[in-house]
Each structure stands twice: as structure tokens, then as C-alpha cells.
């Protein structure tokens, strides 16, 4: 699937006497803002703006290149426990891993994302893309709230749920989500959960 500034190419290579015509399905708007400038001007990305500034990722997101940012909205940050959020925000390495997990190495418009695709993030992990009816899903969840916001150095999709990589989780959080969750309950009952966090 070929896209031009996220407009889908419908028909290609119509040759004319003075050139060639490609038919697309949208009017292409002027794009002047970098991904970083979109983060700085969008009210719903206020928490992300703070996190990016704290992680020194601003220079990457305003640099030349072609990236996809899965931008967590304020709502996405509000969904995770305050204690977990404060821990990540206070840990530069975990915060950087978290944000890099929301950045893809290439610009991927929604039209060009095919269900069943595995996409690699800057953090090094992968995200599985699928679909639920008309909606795209990430790791099985239809969390893309707004798609195809174009930037001079890529594209931004707003997501209303935070994608937390394993590298940004504590041992306790990882264990709770795995086959050893009963063991973590025993650690907690024994008053030893602090060792896992």
C-alpha cells in the first residue's frame, strides 16, 4: 500500500504528454510542524510534553528523519496508577524506554499499516497490529484515538492507553502479569513485596 502524506494512492502511472498523474484519495495539506512542535502545541499531550522534556528526546523528535510517534494522551497517563507513573517519571532510564516504546523507526500512515504486521519500536520491542472492525488495534487493543497527524519528520497517532514495555516495569509488575502471579501474592503476604519493587 502506497501513501502520499497519508493519502492513499488509488491509481498510479497515468502517462500524459507532459508528465505523469497519480490519483490519491485526499487533498494534501501543507505540513509545517515537526513531531516535537505538535507535542508542544497540542493540549491533550501536556503530560507527554513534560515527559519528553524530562527524557531529552526533544532533539530527536524535531530532527530530520521519518518517525511514527504513538502519542499517549493525557487520558492515557491518567489510566495508570499514580504510584507507577511517579516511579517512571522519576527514573530517567525507565522513562526513556517508555517513550522510545512509542516511537517507530519509520513513518507509518494508518492506511499503510496492515493487520498482522509486527512493528519495531526504538526501544527494541515489537508491537502487534491488528484490527477490530474498522479500528486498528495495538497489541490487541483498539487504542488509537486520532490518526495520521502529519509532521515534517513523520506522522503522529494519538493513543488513549499507555504502552509500557517490560524494561520500564518492576519485577513485581512483571510477575503480576505472568504465570507466577500467585508467587507474588505470597511475597506480598510475607511482607517482602518491597524487594520486588
From TrEMBL:
PROSITE patterns: FAS1 (PS50213)
SMART domains listed in its UniProt record: FAS1
Pfam families cross-referenced by the UniProt entry: Fasciclin (PF02469)
Single Gene Ontology BP annotation: extracellular matrix organization
Protein name: BGH3 protein
InterPro entries attached to this UniProt entry: Adhesion/Biosynth-related, FAS1_dom_sf, FAS1_domain
GO cellular component, one term: extracellular space
Gene: Tgfbi
FAS1 domain residues: 1-28, 32-163
GO molecular function, one term: cell adhesion molecule binding
Amino acid at each position: 500500500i502506497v501513501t502520499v502524506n497519508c493519502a492513499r494512492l488509488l491509481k498510479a502511472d497515468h502517462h500524459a504528454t507532459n508528465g505523469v498523474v497519480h490519483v490519491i484519495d485526499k487533498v494534501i495539506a501543507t505540513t509545517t510542524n515537526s513531531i516535537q512542535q505538535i507535542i508542544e502545541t497540542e493540549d491533550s499531550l501536556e503530560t507527554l510534553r513534560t515527559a519528553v522534556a524530562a527524557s531529552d528526546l526533544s532533539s530527536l523528535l524535531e530532527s530530520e528523519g521519518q518517525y511514527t510517534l504513538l502519542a499517549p494522551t493525557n487520558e492515557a497517563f491518567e489510566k495508570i496508577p499514580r504510584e507507577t507513573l511517579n516511579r517512571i517519571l522519576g527514573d530517567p532510564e525507565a522513562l526513556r524506554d517508555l517513550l522510545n516504546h512509542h516511537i517507530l523507526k519509520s513513518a507509518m500512515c494508518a492506511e499503510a499499516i496492515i493487520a498482522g504486521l509486527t512493528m519495531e519500536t526504538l526501544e527494541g520491542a515489537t508491537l502487534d497490529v491488528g484490527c477490530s472492525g474498522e479500528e486498528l488495534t495495538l497489541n490487541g487493543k483498539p487504542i488509537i484515538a486520532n490518526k495520521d497527524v502529519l509532521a515534517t519528520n513523520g506522522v503522529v497517532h494519538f493513543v488513549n492507553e499507555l504502552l509500557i514495555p517490560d524494561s520500564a516495569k518492576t519485577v513485581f509488575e512483571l510477575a503480576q502479569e505472568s504465570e507466577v502471579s500467585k508467587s507474588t501474592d505470597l511475597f506480598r503476604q510475607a511482607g517482602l513485596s518491597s524487594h520486588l519493587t
